[in-house]
Amino acid sequence: MAYWLMKSEPFKYGWDDLVAEGEGTWDGVRNYLARNNLMAMQVGDEAFFYHSREGLEIVGICTVSVAGIGDPTDESGKWAAVKVKPKAKLARPVTLAAIKAEPRLADMQLIRLSRLSVCAVTPEEWQVICAMAKS
DNA sequence: GCCAACGTTGGC
DNA sequence: GCCAACGTTGGC
Prior knowledge:
The chain has 135 residues and is α+β, with helices and mostly antiparallel strands. The chain has a single domain (3-134), classed as ph1033 like fold (Roll). It has helices at residues 10-13, 15-21, 32-40, 96-101, 109-112, 123-134, and strands at 3-8, 24-26, 46-51, 57-70, 80-95, 118-121. The longest helix has 12 residues, at 123-134. It is globular. 33% of the residues are buried.
């Protein structure tokens, strides 16, 4: 089981859109590191859903329902995609400011590679953020 | 709306 | 193969 963080702009495709659809395809990724992360995902992996540009916070958790498929928006066949289903909305969103203020989260890919749209999250980081989302 | 950071492209 | 130019992303 691995953990991830996926960014989306809420005015383009937000958490509420994913909940409304029931299942969403994570496609349109055109970055090699993000693609590597996408291709490493397995069915059952969990991912934070992060709102970028507006909101700047983790709002929910989704699970990978289909892994290792080609990107339907790509004709060349070299880009990857996965499908995800919403699992739970966080009791309290975890903001970027809160993540930056937490020393244990300072080394997250999210912080170090701010433009990466699909980030890996370590189990330790996952636990810390989940704890922050409850209290 | 601006700007910094980063990835990609293309000329040499 | 290097590097400058450009485009895109995302935080502020």
